[in-house]
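Page 42, continued from yesterday. The earlier attempt failed because a stray header line got pasted into the input along with the sequence. Redoing it now with the clean sequence only.
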Amino acid sequence: MHSALLKSIYKYYHTIKPIVSLLNLINKGHERSIKAKKNILESFLYKGSSLAISLVLVPLTIHYINPTQYGIWITLSSIVGWFGFFDIGFGNGLRNKFAEALAKGEHVLARTYVSTTYAILSIIVVIILIIFLCINPLLNWTGILNAPVNLANELSILALIVFVFFCFQFVLQLITTVLTASQQPAKASLLNLIGSLLSLVVIFILTKTTSGSLIYLGISLGLMPVLVLIVSSIWFYTHKYKIYAPALRFVKFGCARDLMSLGLKFFIIQIVFVISYQTSNIIIAQLFGSYQVTSYNIAFKYFGIIPMMMGIVMMPFWSAITEAWIKSDINWIQNAIKKIITLWMLFMILALIMVFCSKNIYKLWIGHEIEIPFIVSASLAAYVIINTWCGIFSLFLNGVGKLRLQLFIGLGGSVVNIPLAIYLGKQIGVSGVVLSTCILSLFGAILLPIQYSKILNKTSKGIWDK
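This time it went through. Structure tokens are written below.
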């Protein structure tokens, strides 16, 4: 009997041993590192689930409408998404300033930053919504999206729907900024997961109850995230984050200068990023039609798994680096970046494997309806490898507020990218559009690591230190 009992205990111990080892690993190290590891683990769970949902949504949505209409939807969503940069960098400015205030224990100042940012973005959103309502009837959406003329009225209504829901998200998503700045990005990922899950349920219901409609699609995919953000904002600001809840008495437009001094640099970088990297859908739509936008975006989503996973790892480190920099904890920063670089190497290998498996994966995922050339997959793999490498050092530079070099690299790229993408696109097809962004990303891939080293070695001068 004792022998059987001992065997049971031994078996139980070896069953839970991996779990115990994982918990020990998570709870080992600096408090800042422990918090980051816990957020990474939770974020993998939430974002992994969100990724699975987004992958299911692609074929479900394509079959609900059709490949051409899906390409129109993706392109329109991209265009409307550009208006997100009209926050003039206040979102990222809040992220850094809020993290700094928390590191110094200045909770009233943190609440002032939150309240002021909500107030400013609300004013901005009212202005851009009024402007859009005035100009939308004058816009030729069929020409902009290279879509069939018979969809003109439908696209005008769809654009209005998408833009209105975008305006709500524009302000409401600040709760995710607050969560991330307080080193709780996993909670922000959970909100995205809930929104994605609700969207999946609604789209599935639509496939069973209605015929394909871009209008219904726009309402469904726009409404669900807004509802989640409204409920979560009320919850967090009445519970754990009550001391940071936005309130009119804490709105101080004088603080806008603090937010803008850093935020404006983020804003310009975001604008040039849009011009350099987010115009691909428009260029492809104009050169090759909406069907090719669908083909490109399927491949983009497939290889987007890598930056998403890298983003999960890096997300908690932005605000942690800000805190470490304020406290002059350089060793912690160096160790964190080294570990992220090691992980990047593993993801680079994964990207190469994904290229060679892509044809079979596409068929399993989408079916035989859409053909995606191997060269498009290979060029997108190169794109994510280069850009995730740049992202490692941008993470550090963003966290410490040294943005000028990124700004100049982005400005140069924004001037060259569109004509280069059009030229290469005409020469070698869709992959040429991707190749253009890869070529321009190489400047950041070389220069940003140099700036990182100079700053940590205290040898940065001039543009390297701004």
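Notes: Confidence is low (pLDDT under 50) at residues 9-23.
Reminder to self: strip header lines before submitting.
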